[in-house]
Design goal:
Elements lengths: L2 H5 L1 E5 L3 H13 L3 E5 L2 H9 L5 E5 L7 H10 L6 E5 L4 H9 L4 E4 L4 H14 L8 E4 L2 E4 L4 E4 L2 E3 L3 H12 L5 E2 H9 L8 H13 L8 E4 L3 E4 L16
Parallel strand pairs: 1-2, 1-3, 3-4, 4-5
Antiparallel strand pairs: 6-7, 7-8, 8-9, 10-12, 11-12
Helix pairs in contact: 3-4, 7-9
Length: 243
């Protein structure tokens, strides 16, 4: 876990339960502390207590809207980064959000990877410690700046989805991810296709990493998948884990 993830607390002000659970699950998997408020006034009350490092703020709320929440925060002297969420794509809304003091703006449906990148950029901007931009596990090295992957010094060409899957595994070795969790974190909460898309992409990723038989990305039957870096070259793990 990197230093940013270990210390950052994110407040989500959002009233749509699907998105709340998507953000709460995904951000906690990334190591962030996550708190939720389902109305503007509830969110403002929580922010008065302090201890929040970044705010994810929906525009459409059941009481006061996100623009008003943002305006009140800036007028009261709050300087924490604010990322606005909205289903509306109009340029005027985007401009209004930035004019009221938001630092960034993302429209629904959004990619979790894109949101994470924006969160990290905002945390770096306000002085949080820089995160490690190179992830390693076994003999795999992933550079997040150049979006390149090597195994044993040899380049591995991955699709964006395969890259996202491998990044998640490298960040959380030995953690078992269910298919539904992988769908939410990699494909997004709005994905409505078949869950076997996960199995297909895992299979492709194994082939490209020459992970046959599966020693690194192991199947936990009836549960999901986990990355086991300690098993990269171990003959004792030629069979996939059964649970």
């Amino acid at each position: 876990m990197n230093e940013i993830d270990a210390i950052a607390t994110i407040l989500v002000i959002e009233d749509e339960q699907t998105i709340i659970e998507f953000l709460r699950t995904g951000l906690r998997y990334e190591g962030y502390r996550v708190e939720v408020a389902t109305s503007g006034n509830e969110g403002l009350k929580r922010l008065r207590r302090g201890g929040v490092d970044l705010l994810i703020l929906d525009i459409m709320l059941p009481d006061i809207d996100g623009f008003e929440v943002c305006r009140r925060l800036r007028e009261s002297g709050h300087t924490l980064p604010i990322i606005m969420l909205t289903a509306r794509k109009e340029i005027t809304d985007r401009v209004r959000g930035l004019d009221t003091g938001a630092d960034d703006y993302i429209t629904k449906p959004f990619s979790f990877d894109e949101l994470l990148a924006r969160i990290r950029a905002q945390l770096r901007r306000v002085g949080h410690a820089s995160e490690n931009r190179v992830l390693r596990g076994a003999d795999i090295e992933m550079n997040l700046e150049t979006r390149t992957v090597q195994r044993a010094g040899q380049p591995v060409e991955l699709t964006p989805t395969e890259f996202s899957l491998l990044e998640l595994f490298l960040r959380h070795p030995r953690r078992v991810f269910t298919r539904d969790t992988l769908l939410n974190l990699v494909w997004g909460y709005h994905y409505a296709g078949e869950t076997n898309v996960v199995d297909v992409h895992i299979s492709h990723l194994r082939e490209k990493l020459n992970d046959r038989p599966a020693r690194l990305i192991r199947t936990h039957y009836g549960v999901g998948y986990a990355f086991h870096p300690e098993d990269a070259g171990s003959p004792a793990h030629r069979e996939e884990t059964r649970s």
